[in-house]
Amino acid sequence: MAADFPTDPPAAAPGEDDEQHISPDRLRALSDGVFAIAATLLILDVRPPAADEGVWSGLRHEWPALDAYAVSFLIIGIAWIHHHNLFHQVRKVDRGLLFLNLGMLATIAFLPLPAATLGDHLGRGDAPAAAVFYSVSMAAASLWFTLFWNHLCRRPELMHPRARDGARRARARSLLGPVGYAVAAAIALLSPAGSLVLSAAIVLYFIVGRRAPATRTRIPAASGE
């Protein structure tokens, strides 16, 4: 009688892409680290009041840097939530998704630079250029989520079966970020502060204008369950 041991898994069919079977866990772990570092670096450009000046007057002088920090931190935080929501619905990762994720992480890690630039130049003569740089950087960071969803729409087998129906709707909704920040870049030419307000409004929408993260990450139950 043959021993009752599990058999080896069948060999992959010729031409089958084994990279489709990469677990999303390591990708999420790397991404969480980059998000955390990028969010932490934002505060480094905010200078504490000097010893020879008043606390409140010193902090008041730092309001552009504080505003840029607050909006940028929320943007990175919302991007992290969206990243979590998206990969909660992914059951395996292929090479394309890996490289898209690396591109997204590169732009997230870059965001402290435009945030610091805007904080240093808001209220000065070259504020429009700084605000355009900031808004374009935010648009680039948010565009990766549209590319994520576009890839998943083309490769639905990467997703949990019950999550596939919502991929096209998620791709359409994801356009709000890059389009909104592109509009903010155009407004920045006339009003840098108005551009920052629009960026804050986009963040506010993603915080309070949509369903709670727990409901967005819940994979729809199959009919009859």
Key words describing this protein structure:
single chain, 225 residues, mainly alpha, 10 helices, 0% strand, disordered N terminus, disordered C terminus
Report the uncertain regions. 1-20, 212-217, 220-225
Q: Percent of residues in helical segments? A: 55-70%
Q: What radius of gyration results from the CA coordinates?
A: 22 Å
- Helix/strand structural class: mainly alpha
The count of helical stretches stands at: 10
Secondary-structure element order, as H and E?
A: HHHHHHHHHH
| Principal-axis shape | elongated
- Please provide the count of β strands: 0
Main beta sheet: none
Indicate the mean pLDDT. 81
Distance between the termini: 40 Å
Estimated share of beta-strand residues: under 5%
Compact description:
The protein has 225 residues and is mainly α. Helices cover 66% and strands 0% of the residues.
How would you sum up this structure, described in words?
- The chain has 225 residues and is an all-alpha fold.
- Helix content is 66%, strand content 0%.
- The chain has ten helices and no strands.
- It has helices at 24-41, 55-61, 63-88, 95-110, 112-121, 127-154, 167-174, 176-188, 192-208, 213-217.
- Helix 1 runs parallel beside helix 4 and helix 3 runs parallel beside helix 6 (127-154).
- It is elongated, with a radius of gyration of 22 Å.
- The relative contact order is 0.12.
- Residues 1-20, 212-217 and 220-225 have low confidence and may be disordered.
